[in-house]
Amino acid sequence: QVQLVESGGGVVQPGRSLRISCAASGYTFSSYGMHWVRQAPGKGLEWVALIWFDGSKRYYADSVNGRFTISRDDSKNTLYLQMDSLRVEDTAVYYCVRDPGSVAYYYDSWGQGTLVTVSS
Amino acid sequence: DIVMTQTPLSLSVTPGQPASMSCKSSQSLLHTDGKTYLYWYLQKPGQSPQLLIYEVSRRFSGVPDRFSGSGSGTDFTLKISRVQAEDVGIYHCMQGIHHPATFGQGTKLEIK
Q1: Among B50, B96, B104, whose Cβ lies nearest the Cβ of A106?
Q2: Does A107 touch chain B (CB under 8 A)?
Q3: 20 to 30 A Cα–Cα from B102, which one of A46, A87, B54, B55?
Q4: CB-based contacts of B94: which residues, under 8 Å, 6+ apart?
Q5: Residue A47 sits at the chain B interface (C-beta within 8 Å)
């Protein structure tokens, strides 16, 4: 079955960097677009970034554009999110999600999430 | 960005009774292909969200038939015919037709 396992979260100071990862298994990773979605403590869900199945296109939320970089390594079945210039408001659980959509975005599988806390 | 508005924000239901919640979008979610791209997710306590309903009314694999979705255009409803204890959590609606995908603020379902 499909499994998405995030890792790399932790506590980081404002202005510093962190890279989180998502290991995928149970399906052909290279056939699917992948996203990062985050949830601040006690808040709703917010889309963060998208990478197409072939890595040819990447999109970002305005709130992270220019600071975060999404990437994938199909040889390792792994998705990454490089987060630079972190801010207190980036504190959230970050979920890796699979997107099977062709016309519209939607997420049929979610990881368990990794908590990123930005604090001095 | 498309704004998704869910009501009520919280709901308390006796087991065995029905529940209903609403989701409204600021623009139509009807695509030129004739499909409407509105989704419902359930986030159980301490867990990540799971897909319940896609394209307004289609139940995802393994979702019990007590869950049903309806609506069109900008107004949508999720109904649970007979609430069970395992249905507690936060229900999120999401639109996927306009970039970026956006979520409602969630409806929290509790058991009386």
Answers
A1: B96
A2: yes
A3: A87
A4: A45, A106, B4, B38, B39, B40, B41, B101, B102, B103, B104
A5: yes
